[in-house]
Amino acid sequence: MDRLGEWLFFFLIFPGIAFAVGLGLAMSWVDRKVTALVQWRQGPSAPQPFWDVVKLLGKEVILPEQAWTAGFLAFPFVAFASAALAATLTWHAALRLPGGTFGDLIVVLYLLAIPSLAVILGGAASGNPLGAVGASRDMKLVLGYELPLVTALLVAVFQHRALDGHDVTAATLSLDGLVRFQDAVGAVIYRPSGVLAFLVALSCCHAKLGFVPFDQAEADTEIAEGALIEYSGPLLALFKLTQAVQLATLPVLLVTVFWGGFQPAAWGVAAFAAKMLLVLVILVLVKNTNPRVRIDQAMRFFWGPVAGTALLALVLAQIGW
Amino acid sequence: MSKAPASIFARALRKSPWVFHVGTSGCNNCDIEIADCLTPRFDVERFGVRLVGSPRHADVMLISGPVSTACRKPLQETWLEMPRPRAAVMVGVCACSMGAYRDAYSVSGPADKVIREVDPEAKFVYIPGCPPKPETIIAGMVKLLGEL
What we know:
Chain A is mainly alpha-helical. Chain A has 12 helices and no strands. Chain A has one domain (2-318). Chain A has helices at 2-12, 17-38, 48-57, 69-94, 105-125, 129-164, 175-185, 192-208, 220-223, 233-259, 266-288, 295-318. In chain B, helix 2 (29-37) links the parallel strand 1 (18-23) and strand 2.
């Protein structure tokens, strides 16, 4: 019972829903502000993402006639819940919160894939042709980036195994274990294989967030937000919150797996926040300086150079580099 | 309008009006001025205004042009696709009163009349001009937000 209460606190308040939503909205403001600065604009004020979500919560929900109503209503909740759970697990490991090891890399990867699936299914359930186009593009994109992402995250595991002299069975897949391992022998990113893997994971997270070179699934100017086209009011707000929570999760996952966890000291807080912001700003700058590519170009990119780099990094990690 | 303190949703609506732009057979002049509002010089994102691609996401419809007969039905359908609360801004003299096209055979506007046929309670703001300056469009938006 105690454990249940503890985990409900982790999931609902810190570092789960309440914390991740707050941080995610703040980070989506950073995204919009940096975008505005790149374009020599002033950009929105800090509470803007919060007002956007509150406004959407107060609006009417329109159910399209052709939609599969149950699915159309359910998928935003699925997306938000799994994104929040992924945020809980990632932050729990990153901040070294008490409560023992819970959830490993594989669980987090699954949970991070579910929001994309929910968007795909929601778009397909909406019965809108543009929604279907968006869903099919999103599906291709998921097929493209998941393989290199998994490979890149495995590099951290392989480094652990090679450097610790363990056999396969001792290699850790738990986020806590990866954080402790980096405490002992230095961050993954400080080795050649780590650098390559970090770059691969960064570009995969870029696609996961749907940022511009890889925003074919939303493509405002062609298919009017694709899979989200029929969503309105609170359901749209849930998808926006899901995006915000992902924005608060993916940079942290990258920093935790490749760049060491949070050090419990004043400079540790600053260093952790700075690393996270650096990752975010890199993502935003890439987003603002690139045009959207076609979906086949995106897939070729992920299955060609990106997957190749990830494999190379895996080999380097295996030989202890 | 009631004098009761505005709910948090009404406040939020004023802080983040998302705009869907409908060109109802205008001459593209007003459309260019609308696009101007998003440029660095005017930057309406400061006020939380965003141009969205789907009427389902929008709070405010920007209408430019004297609703031709062919545009009538699509305009009404698009209006009904917007979730409540919703409002419309008539940009330019054509949208307000059909302007130079007043007695032309091919128009069935003005836009407010066309929308009132399907939604008698619709709210409108009129921004005359041919085309209105971006400053005027922003002033009109601000006026609309005061009334929402």
